[in-house]
Write a structure and sequence with these properties.
The complex is a heterodimer of chains A (372) and B (366).
Chain A (H helix, E strand, L loop, with lengths): L1 H15 L12 E2 L3 E6 L5 E8 L9 E8 L2 H9 L5 E2 L6 E5 H4 L9 H5 L8 E5 L4 H4 L9 H14 L8 H9 L6 E8 L2 E10 L5 E5 L1 H10 L8 E5 L13 E18 L2 E17 L5 H29 L7 H8 L1 H7 L3 H6 L2 E12 L5
Parallel strand pairs in A: 1-5, 2-6, 6-7, 7-8, 13-14
Antiparallel strand pairs in A: 2-3, 3-4, 8-9, 9-10, 11-12, 12-13
Chain B lengths: L10 H16 L3 H9 L3 H23 L7 H9 L1 H33 L6 H16 L3 H14 L3 H6 L19 H14 L5 H4 L9 H26 L11 H7 L9 H14 L3 H14 L6 H17 L4 H41 L1
Helix pairs in contact in B: 1-7, 1-11, 2-3, 2-9, 2-11, 3-9, 3-11, 3-16, 4-5, 5-6, 5-13, 5-14, 5-16, 6-14, 6-15, 9-16, 12-13, 14-15
The chains are: A alpha/beta (372), B mainly alpha (366).
Chain lengths: 372, 366
């Protein structure tokens, strides 16, 4: 009797409690690896996706879809109409945004679906493209890898050398909401019909595009953010060394080793003041002019420090004029001058633009390389 | 003769049952709650709440010392007679049932959000109830062993939270006491919900092997609770900006969501599937205690028949009604209030009463 009851219970449970409602066969799934968001001439939201095609018969191994919609989730339904399976947002590697979209404030609100729908990935990298997105999406150059893979690889490897920024969806969320910092994302461009990484694009508090930085400036930015912990390569001109005709023989390149930026924050007479002390240990990788390193090593260190300081100051001046703070000095302001920051936090970019920033650079040549 | 000799639990089992039960439902959402209340100073609130909890649990032990061989229900019976005991049993059974139900509902909602959005709630409930019944029917000793097992296989969790350590910013925590003490103090009451659970001592006390160590056990368990809360809170506070952390329901899950390995993404999915084991501690002991209380009332030694009724009730009930996430939040809030009354206020009043009672009795007998 007892065993029979037990058996019956088991059968009932087997039949009625099969938890397969969430099953999803891989044949029924369409996996976009890249999505792009743009606005058309009538300011309607355009969504592009790039999907790898796993089919023997298909000549082209990727499929591009572009649809017009009002929201991102709605665009998924429109895209489903073109694809054999159901869209799954969990494998998106890169999210491309057009500059046109980034000129509208509060565009970031559109990204809500990435966070609210728990099935979406929030580790996709964000990049901006200057121009209509259709140019890149439908490009499919014969000699470059599949675009999502190409972009992801570009951003991963170059950010390791601080030449671009690795801003993921989660990171962007933090930068958008944090009042003491303005967002920064990677930027790509098209040159001679080839996709190319440009550096980084800086946005303001509302997410509007403000400024682009080249690769060397991006390195400098990340040194000041104290995030350049992996070696980065820089090339400088050394004043006083002659230029030989067309060749730039007054150049010197080095890799940064350990760089440490100390920030002192003060608030005096209604103004913030940041004293930055950049401590760099470098090793030379290239020197195009003769130099007596044994005697004048200290001198060279000071010259490099002076040049670096100039570069930093130019960059800071350029950014301050735009009333943004991608460095995140606002975090220091909040931590050490809380009351003053609290009053300024809603217009931090402006307040930061009026602050005084002083940079001091110390350079130590750790090694001059394999040559004398 | 000891009534509960066959079902004793050790010191550590006692600690782990209470600690797991308390931590399980609070761990993931607590950082957000603290940030809402006291900003990044929320961790100070946590320490204050811990002090209060230790004090309250020591009082519970003082109460239970009056009746080392029986539960609170036996004590009530001895003081005021049979009906007081029965009334106490009903109230405690309701409390434990509600507590366990809140835990179950929360677990199901988390599962539905993160893992099984399409699966109907009653199905998840049924699937959760099967192992619950298998563990609970065997009584407290198995429960204690289960709690031990859960704690030991969860020891890797702190290491996962250390993975994003290189992306954190310690500046978020500064300045300490940014808005003064007021928000920190006003945040303390919300913490009661996240610290209740030690009232199980009312029932478990006679089962504890070495009763002299009861105070130490409760102190240890609330300290463990505090440390795990402090850990996850600090991990979230330095990872998220103070301006964004209140946007997430469970910051504890979002921290893991951003972890990337080369070949595995969405770590949080594996994590939640595993965390289910810890969640299970928020209802398994309570379902046992519920059926214990009702069987005590019916003067039955075997709690299993009552347990079956409770399980059946839950399974069928969920088929007809499943709370939404807002209702679940509300239920948790109400549980916080009831728990505050039963676990913090009631023991103090009861202890005062016992003192007065003893005093009067002594005077009369003189």
């Amino acid at each position: 009797m007892r065993t029979r009851l037990l058996k019956l219970t088991f059968i009932v449970l087997f039949v009625f409690t099969a938890g397969c409602s969430d099953r999803m066969d891989i044949e029924d799934v369409t996996i976009p690896l890249l999505t792009g968001y743009d606005l058309d001439q009538h300011d309607r939201l355009l969504t592009y996706t790039k999907i790898p095609v796993f089919s023997k018969d298909a000549k082209k191994k990727s499929h591009e879809i572009g649809v017009v919609s009002r929201t991102l989730r709605e665009s998924r339904q429109r895209e489903d109409e073109y694809a054999p399976g159901l869209f799954q947002g969990r494998k998106i590697l890169v999210v491309l945004l057009s500059k046109r979209l980034l000129q509208h404030e509060n565009w970031f609100t559109l990204m809500d679906v990435y966070f609210r729908d728990a099935k979406n990935s929030i580790t996709s990298r964000i990049a901006m493209y200057d121009g209509p997105l259709s140019e890149v999406i439908y490009l499919n150059p014969a000699d470059q890898p599949f675009l999502p893979i190409l972009l992801r690889g570009m951003i991963e490897t170059k950010s390791r050398r601080s030449e671009t920024v690795k801003t993921s969806m989660q990171e962007l969320h933090r930068q958008m909401l944090e009042k003491g910092i303005t967002p920064y994302i990677a930027e790509i461009m098209l040159e001679n019909q080839e996709v190319k990484l440009k550096g980084s694009a800086l946005l303001d508090h509302q997410g509007r595009y403000v400024l682009s930085l080249g690769y060397q400036e991006t390195v400098l930015l990340q040194i000041l953010q104290n995030q350049a912990d992996k070696p980065a390569s820089l090339t400088l001109s050394i004043p006083g060394e002659p230029k030989h005709g067309l060749l730039h023989l007054n150049k010197l390149s080095f890799n940064t080793g350990k760089t440490k930026t100390k920030i002192k924050t003060a608030y005096r007479q209604g103004k913030f003041r940041f004293d930055l002390n950049v401590d760099m240990s470098i090793w030379l990788t290239e020197r195009l002019f003769p130099y007596d390193m044994r005697k004048k090593r200290k001198e060279l260190e000071n010259t490099i420090a002076g040049q670096m300081q100039k570069e930093f100051e130019t960059l800071i001046g350029k950014i301050k004029r735009k009333r943004i703070d991608p460095f995140g000095f606002g975090l220091n302001a909040r931590a050490y001058e809380y009351n003053a920051f609290k009053k300024a936090e809603d217009r931090w970019g402006e307040v930061f633009g009026e602050s005084d920033i002083h940079v001091q650079v110390q350079v130590k040549i750790g090694s001059k390389g394999a040559m004398r | 003769m000891k009534k509960y000799a066959y079902n004793e639990i050790t010191f550590l089992q006692f600690v782990f049952i209470i600690n797991n039960m308390t931590v399980s439902i609070g761990f993931l959402a607590l950082p957000r709650v603290l940030a809402e209340q006291a900003g990044t100073d929320g961790w100070i609130t946590l320490i204050l709440g811990w002090l209060l909890t230790v004090a309250a649990s020591l009082i519970v032990v003082q109460v239970m010392k009056r009746c080392p061989d029986g539960t609170l229900l036996d004590l009530l019976t001895r003081l005021w007679g049979k009906w007081a005991g029965k009334a106490g049993a009903v109230l405690l059974a309701l409390y434990f049932f509600y507590y366990g139900y809140v835990g179950l509902v929360y677990t199901i909602l988390i599962l539905k959000t993160w893992l099984l959005p399409m699966t109907p709630a009653y199905l998840i409930m049924l699937l959760l109830l099967i192992p619950t019944y298998m563990i609970t029917r065997n009584g407290v000793r198995i429960l204690g062993r289960y709690a031990e097992l859960i704690l030991f296989i969860s020891l890797w969790i702190p290491f996962v939270y250390m993975l994003p350590l290189k992306e954190v910013n310690w500046l978020y925590l500064l300045p300490v006491l940014k808005e003064g003490w007021k928000p920190i103090l006003t945040g303390v009451p919300t913490l009661f919900y996240y610290n209740i659970g030690f009232a199980t001592t009312f029932i478990l006390y006679p089962l504890l092997k070495d009763k002299r160590k009861a105070s130490a056990a409760l102190t240890l368990s609330s300290t463990l609770t505090m440390l795990s809360y402090l850990f996850v809170t600090l991990a979230c506070f330095v990872y998220f900006s103070p301006d964004e952390i209140t946007e997430f329901n469970e910051p504890g899950i979002f921290v893991l969501k951003a972890i990337e390995f080369k070949y595995i993404e969405r770590i949080e999915v594996t994590f939640i599937a595993f965390y289910l084991l810890i969640f299970s501690m928020s209802w398994i002991p309570l379902m046992y205690l519920t059926s214990y209380c009702t069987s005590w009332m019916a003067r039955k030694q075997d709690h299993r028949s009552h347990l079956r009724v409770v399980m059946l009730l839950l399974g069928i009930g969920t088929f007809f009604f499943m709370p939404t996430d807002d209702q679940s939040d509300l239920m948790a809030e109400i549980l916080g209030h009831i728990g505050f009354g039963l676990e913090y206020i009631f023991p103090v009043c009861f202890l005062l009463f016992l003192w007065v009672y003893d005093y009067v009795k002594r005077r009369v007998s003189l």
